[in-house]
Amino acid sequence: MSNEPAAASPVKPRSDLRLRVLSALVMAVIVLFATFLGGPVYRLFAAALALLVFHEWSAMKPTLPRDNRLLAWGALVAALVPLVLGMPDWVVLIAIALASLLAGLHALGSNAGLWNAFGIAYAALPALAIAALRGDTMNGLIIVLYLYAVVWATDIVAYFVGRALGGPKLAPSISPGKTWSGAAGGTVGACAAGVGLLMVMGVSGAALIFAALLALALSVVSQAGDLFESALKRRNGMKDSGSLIPGHGGVMDRVDGLVAAALLLYAAFALASMAGTLPAGLLAL
Question: How many domains, the chain?
Answer without folding.
Answer: 2
